[in-house]
Amino acid sequence: MKQDILKYESKVWQTADLLIGAGIKQSDFPKYMMPFFALIMVESRFSRMGDELKDRN
């Protein structure tokens, strides 16, 4: 699972660089980045659920 999350590392840094370039203060990052992290968590949960369903069959 850790490997699944790490595949997004470069995208997270690219997004942070984009926000800095757009003049967004680092203190405002959470309101921009939290939806992104939430999607990563949902994808991870769906992936695990899919693996569990495959193992049951």
Q: How would you describe this structure to a colleague?
A:
With 57 residues, the chain is mostly helical. It has one domain. The chain has 3 helices and no strands. Helix 2 packs antiparallel against helix 3. The protein is elongated and about 50 Å long. The mean pLDDT is 84.
Mean pLDDT: 84
Separate helix tally: 3
- How many domains is the backbone divided into? 1
Largest beta-sheet details: none
**Strand proportion:** under 5%
Quick overview of this protein structure:
This protein is mainly alpha-helical.
Question: Secondary structure elements and their pairing?
Answer:
Blueprint: H1 2-6, H2 9-21, H3 29-56
Sum up the structure in keywords.
single chain; 57 residues; mainly alpha; elongated
